[in-house]
Amino acid sequence: MSAKVSCFFYVKVFSLLVLFVTFFNVNAYSQVEQKAETDTAVTTTQEHTEGFNAGKMIMGHIGDEHDWHIIGDFTIPLPCILYSKTKGLDVFLSSNFEPHHGEERKYNGYEMKEGKISLLDYETKEGLLTLVDVKVYDFSITKNVLSLFVSAALLLFVFLTVARSYKTREGKAPKGLQSWLEPLILFVRDDIAKPTLGTNYKRFMPLLLTIFFFIFFGNLLGLIPFFPGGANLTGNIAIPFFLAIVILIVIIFIANKHYWGHIVAMPGVPKWVLIILTPIEILGFVLRPFVLMIRLFANITAGHIIALAFYSLIFIFGAKSVAAGYGVSVVSVLFTVFMFCLDLLVAFLQAFVFTLLSSIYFSSAIEVPEHH
């Protein structure tokens, strides 16, 4: 009976979460549509209203921004930290950029266009003042950087709280946050680490837990449009790339002679074959972690694009006819709810797959052959 009650409880929580996030997604992107309709572009003869651009809205969401868009017109500016040889270090809020022409925003010689900041300045060349594009080093706290900080802070808070609970409640049944996370921790240990690493699993558990929960939390936060700003953290190629680099470095440092021997000179293979086989093995060794990068990046980004494409259908058909917009909205919202449910599953699966394959790569690097 208690199992049924628990099951129904999780179903209710999940259903409310789906409806809650769907409502805020529809509301947030309806504001994007209204803003797109009111934006104007200056032409040589007249001003005209720019219509809804689905591609622009989708790429704007999955890309990075210098603002934290909460909901509607409520936007929190983020700090821009810029360095150039001509101006030195400049720190200011992104709200200082004022609209200039169309999508261009300018401030103090800097220009922001499509989320990228550039600096145009005059330099003396052959006695003439020439307008040149000065190289700008951008260290700004962007939406994805803020999301990274939020994920890291959440990760620290959760695990420090759970670790404290284990110390203060030693020998007692898990309670609160501890009871929510313990099944996932045991899942990583019993279904990922132990089957792949055997008796060496304790050595890699801290890293595997960090990888799993960092990706899992990042995926989940990316589904909430206002926390922070619906950032596409794990769908940003830089994050999976860094994780792939970490996996590669760990493999390089833990790999034993047996592992390197099979890569550089596979036993029992004629030397003339090694001329072809060795470069292939080295390439495969380097590419393995980057396959994880591409898988994580592609799956998370694709989920965001498909969900946003369903949103866009409402505004595209609504621009043709109000009745068509309302008619399509019913189907669009249903598909969006379905995609959100699928994205929740993908959020867990991608964290699981990345952690599992990382554990398998670690296992192959430290494996010692048995000689009979």
Give your account of this protein's structure.
The protein has 372 residues and is an alpha+beta fold. It has 2 domains: 79-140, no CATH class; 144-366, no CATH class. The chain has 9 helices and 12 strands. The strands form 4 sheets. It has a 5-stranded antiparallel beta sheet, with no helix packed on it. The chain has a 3-stranded antiparallel beta sheet with strand order 6-5-12, with no helix packed on it. Helix 4 (177-197) crosses helix 5 (201-221), helix 6 packs antiparallel against helix 8 (271-320) and helix 8 packs antiparallel against helix 9. Mean pLDDT is 76; it is low at 1-7 and 9-49.
Quickly give the structural class: alpha+beta
Give the overall shape, derived from the CA principal axes. Answer: globular
Low-confidence stretches: 1-7, 9-49
Taking the alpha carbons of the first and last residues, their distance comes to: 53 Å
Percentage of residues in DSSP E strands: 5-15%
Count of beta strands: 12
Biggest sheet, in brief? 5 strands, antiparallel
Query: Which H/E pattern describes the elements?
Result: HEEHEEEEEEEEEEHHHHHHH
The number of helical runs is: 9
Describe the secondary structure blueprint for this structure.
Blueprint: H1 2-38, E1 40-42, E2 47-49, H2 54-62, E3 67-71, E4 74-77, E5 79-84, E6 88-93, E7 98-99, E8 105-107, E9 110-113, E10 116-125, E11 128-134, E12 137-138, H3 143-168, H4 177-197, H5 201-221, H6 238-254, H7 257-264, H8 271-320, H9 322-366
Antiparallel strand pairs: 1-2, 3-4, 5-6, 5-12, 7-8, 8-9, 9-10, 10-11
Helix pairs in contact: 1-9, 2-8, 3-5, 4-5, 4-9, 5-9, 6-8, 6-9, 8-9
